[in-house]
Predict the structure of intramembrane prenyl-peptidase Rce1.
Amino acid sequence: MMEIYSHHNYSLLKASMVVGLQLGYTAVFGSYSSFLFVRTGNLVAPLIAHAFCNHMGLPVLFVPRKGLVSVAFVAGMLSFAWLLFPLTRPDLYNDRTNNCRCWQGFCLWN
């Protein structure tokens, strides 16, 4: 925060907002990466998600002109929500599930 405050000549409020956004985004992405690893049982899924996230950067939430960009954003969010669980099924990534919904085999511990 001090680097943003002193080197970029931001006010203390604006520097705090930038750091808060970065921390919030990092916490959400960390939770998503953990979900991917636990759900798929494969380290490749969070690595690919991290590379894609680094390539794309933060999403643009406010566009001055409404149109194709807004439609694409909404379509992407809906597709993400709809496909999250079907595309992270453990049996797609690990053949040792034995008809268990989780790759760790917690359902077999009974």
About this structure: The longest helix spans residues 12-40. The CA atoms of residues 84 and 105 lie 21 Å apart. The chain has a mean pLDDT of 80.
